[in-house]
Amino acid sequence: MADPTTVVIIGAGAAGLFCAYQLEQLAGERISIHIVEADSRYGGRINTARFGSIAVDTGASFIHGIECNPMFDLATIELELCEKRYVGGQRKHVLKHERGTQLSHAEARSIGRYKNAFTRYVDDRRAEFVSTSDAQCEAESVLRPHDCSVKALLDEFLCKCPPPWATGEHEPETQRAMKNYFAFQLWVDEEYEGADFDKLSACEYDDGRGYDGGNFMLEGGYASLVEAIRGKLKHTALHLNKHVERVERVIAAGGSRRGEGGEEAAREHTERFVIHCAGGARFEGDHCVCTVSVGVLQARSIAFSPPLPPRKTEAIDALRMGLMNKVVLYYKTPWWSSGITRLTFVAERVGLYPWTDVYSGRKGEGAALLCWTACAFAEEQEAESDEATLELVYSVLREGLNRQHIPPPDEYVITRWRANPLTRGSWTYIPVGTNEQRAVAALKEPVRSDLSCAVLYFAGEACSRDLLGEVNGAYLSAVEVAQDIASRLE
User: Which residues contact 321 (CB under 8 A, 6 or more apart)?
Assistant: First the structure.
């Protein structure tokens, strides 16, 4: 039997593990896989903090959409993972405004209608921009010459449609609370992208993509998914603490062939990849799959020899990494009112840890609070010390839960995904001036040589146009790569 085809996968995040799993499913013993990971753990931007039975996701949290979603089917049917359950059954949300001002039902509804009107305005203006921009785009360029930010459209909208707090019918404190509530609702959309409106492309801003059916969280955390995948791998070697520095395509002379008359014909040549790691470790493969984040590619942390095609580097530089960070506070003895599952805090300072989720464990295991933020506020907080970050979270909890004192947690976790050199952000978004379809297509395009023997693939959430920024996208791109490699074995 012929030697198995060797594939080296760079990165043991979701895309890397999914790719290995699909390759094994499709090729079995015909494939030999090495996953090379710089971190001391696998999972990448999927990470779960655990305190007994309490599992809190500090990276990716949701399977977005459950209807006709193959990754949801993989998790729940093939791997038999379960949905997260809430202690006590029904969820109880508490909404608090800074300084104690509470909006009436009518005032809150007026803000909701105004926000919906802005969404419709963006959709209409986006259609105009796209038609003009597409006509002006140079052939194959990943850039959009005619684009603007979503913030520019917001400014237009505010000028054309006076906000409900500016009618003169409300007291100053109510006006302030209404304005803050509108800013919070806008921030919810920004948080989903991981970037502020002034950075987001109006042409590419579209929240109508993805699978239907709501969000789904896994019992045991998102890490239970990658752990289950890891446990299924039979022909895959996982190498942790191996920092890839260079990916080299090498050409080696093969054996000579004899012609029909017995004369020696031209010598055959073969290609392979040599993956060079810090410290001297090397891995060789017939194909290579790079699954590192766009942020890592932009930092040029990995050198490619020969260099990547100009179109691919242009696509890499045209994309951006968004940011979401989380603070987890674990208490052996919970001190807050039982029954609350989420606190929403609407502050004048946009992004000031507006959400706090409660995670309860089994009897005697305590509970955890998950506070999270994103976008510009998260960027600012990365530079702060743990002590300063915790004090800011305490200030939100004091006012939001009507407490004079917040006790220090028994354990805590603070994420800094931007500062992490192995991620350099949370997920990919499309900035002003970038053509998403072309940039993603150029990023995911396999790199072949003239011999077309060894292929360099790219996979991950950034390689999925319709599911950009989601673990769903990482899964689908990994499946696509695995199918292409498997087809070359036939």
Answer: 194, 293, 294, 295, 298, 418, 424, 425, 426, 427, 428, 429
- Inter-residue long-range contacts of 203-207, CB under 8 Å, 24+ positions, other chains counted: 203/126, 203/129, 203/130, 203/133, 203/144, 203/147, 203/435, 204/430, 204/434, 204/435, 204/436, 205/122, 205/126, 205/150, 205/430, 206/126
Nearest to 273 by CA among 250, 239, 291: 250
Return all residues near 202 (Cβ < 8 A) that are at least 6 apart. 122, 125, 126, 129, 147, 148, 149, 150, 152, 153, 432
DSSP string, 357-379: EEEE-STTS-EEEEEEEEHHHHH
Q: 148 with 432: CB under 8 angstroms? A: yes
CA distances from 13 to 26, 93, 162, 293, 399 (A): 20, 33, 46, 10, 38
**Residue type at 351 in one-letter notation:** G
Strand pairing of 303-305 and 320-322? unpaired
Structure tokens at 44: 């990448």
The closest alpha carbon to 439, from 245, 289, 298, belongs to 298
Predicted local distance difference test score (pLDDT) of residue 137 = 62
- Report pLDDT for 94: 85
Structure tokens at 299: 């930092």
Find residue 215's DSSP bridge partners: 64
Q: Say if residues 431 and 199 touch (Cβ distance below 8 Å).
A: yes
Q: Specify the 3-state DSSP secondary structure of 327.
A: strand
pLDDT confidence of residue 253: 60
Look-up of token digits 């036939």: 490
d(CA 378, CA 365) in angstroms, rounded, equals 30
Q: How confident is the model at residue 135 (pLDDT cuts 50, 70, 90)?
A: low
**From start to end of 159-300, where are the E strands?**
215-216, 236-239, 244-253, 269-277, 282-285, 287-290
Sign of the torsion formed by the C-alpha atoms of 149, 151, 152 and 154: positive
Between these two residues, 255 and 93, which has the higher pLDDT value?
93
